[in-house]
Amino acid sequence: MEKLIITGGGPLQGEVTIAGAKNAALPAIAACLLSAEPVTLTNIPGVRDIDTALQLLSLMGCEVERDANTLQVTASTLTSVRAPYELVRTMRGSILLLGPLLARFGEADVSLPGGCAIGSRPVNEHITGLERMGAEIDIEAGYIKAKATRLKGAHIVFDVPSVTATENLMMAATLADGTTVIDNAAMEPEITDLALMLSSMGARITGAGTNSITIEGVVSLHGAQHQIPPDRIETGTFLVAAAATRGDITLRNSNAAHLQYVIAKLEDVGSDISSGPDWIRLNSRGLRPQPVNITTAPYPAFPTDMQAQFVTLNALADGSSTVVETIFENRFMHIAELQRMGAHIELQGHTAAIQGTERLQAAPVMATDLRASASLVIAALAADGDTTIDRVYHLDRGYDNIDAKLADLGASTRRVSG
Ligand code: EPU
C-alpha cells in the first residue's frame, strides 16, 4: 500500500492548473448510457473514481476510448446491466448508473453501496423516486434489481436534497413518458452541468440549479460533446493549503463563481483573493490564519467536501473556532489524526471545537476517506518535519496528479510502498 511522505514547513507558491470536476464527470459518464450514439467528454480528471466508472461501463459492454483528458463512450448495445459489488463498494457514485440503465434498457442490477467511512449514506431517495416513475424495485442479496418497460413522468419531492439522487432521477426522466418534476432538488453546480450536457443530447430540462427541476421526457437522446467544468473542491483544497502554509498561489482553469461561500470564509481567514474568468489567486501575505466558524449545508452554502480542510486551517489559526457538520454523521475521522500532529480539537457530537496552535508537528497518520486525506496533506504541508500519510489511495480517488501539482508549488513530497 502506498504512503505519501511530505516535508512541511514552507509556503506554497506558484501556479497550477485545476482538473475537471470528479463529481461532474461521474454523472456525465453515466449519462453516456442514455444514447446509442458516441458521446465525447473533455477535461476528464485523471483520478481513480473515473477509472472505476469506466471499468463499470466496459464491463457492461460499452466502447470506451480514452486519450489523456478526452473520453469517448459509445453505448450502442449492452451485454450486461450489472454493476457488481466489487467495484461499487470502492466508489459510491456507481449508484448513478441506476437511472440511465433503467431508462434506456428497462433493467438494472446495481449493488447497494453499503456504508462508508463518512456515514451510512442511504439511497432511499433514488429508489423511491424511481418507484414513483413506475419502476419495480427489489433488493436481493445486496443488489438493487430494477425493472420498467418505460418509466413514466412523476412528481417527486425529496425529503433531503440529495445530489446524486437528483442527478439519477433527472437522467432517468429524460427518456420517461411524460413530464417529471423534482422538488426540493439539490442545486449543486454539478447538477446544472449535467442538465447542460443532457440538453445538448436532446433532453428537455428547465430549472436545474434551482430547487425545482422539470424534465419533459423524449423518445431518444443523440450523441454530443461536452466539457467537464473545473473541480471546485480541488480548487478549494489548494486555496486552503496556500492559506495554511502562508503562501501565494494562482489556480488556472478554476471558477470562483462556484466557490463564493468558501472564498468569503478564506477572506475572513485574512487572505487576499482575486479572480478572473478562469483563474483564482490567494495571497496570504505571509500571515497566520484567523479562525473562522463553519457550518456545512447544501449548495450554495458551505460544502461538506471542504469541511475537513477547514478543520486543519482552524487548527493552525490564531484563536478558537467551531466547525459543525450537518450533512454526514461521521465525517470527522481526520480529527483523531490531526490530534496526533498536535492539533487541539474537541469533538462534541456534530461540532468540532478547535483551539488553534501556531505549529503542527509531523507524525505518521492514516487517511480514512478522500477529503480527510486532503486535510492531512494540508496539515503535513504546514507541519514541522516529515509526515507519512498511510492509505493514500483515498487521495488518488479524487485528486488528479496531486504530487506533481504540490511539487510545482514548491512542496517536497515522495511516495513509498509498503
Ligand atoms: N441521503 C438520504 N437518502 C438518500 C440520499 C442521501 O438520506 O437516498 C442523505 C445523506 O445521508 C446525506 C444527505 O442526504 O445526509 C446528502 O447526501 P447526498 O446524497 O447529497 O450525497 P451523495 O449524492 O451521495 C455527493 C458527492 C459527495 C458529496 C455529497 C454532498 C458525488 C459522486 N458525490 O454525494 O462527494 O459529499 O454529494 O455534497 O457527487 C466527495 O467527493 O468526496 C464526496 C463524498
UniProtKB/TrEMBL annotation:
Coiled-coil portions: none
Positions bound to UDP-N-acetyl-alpha-D-glucosamine: R92, D305, I327
Residues annotated as binding phosphoenolpyruvate: K22, N23
Residue numbers bearing the 2-(S-cysteinyl)pyruvic acid O-phosphothioketal modification: C116
Major subcellular location class: cytoplasm
Molecular function via GO: UDP-N-acetylglucosamine 1-carboxyvinyltransferase activity
Catalytic activity from the UniProt record: phosphoenolpyruvate + UDP-N-acetyl-alpha-D-glucosamine = UDP-N-acetyl-3-O-(1-carboxyvinyl)-alpha-D-glucosamine + phosphate
Name of the protein in its database record: UDP-N-acetylglucosamine 1-carboxyvinyltransferase
Source species: Candidatus Litorirhabdus singularis
Name of the gene: murA
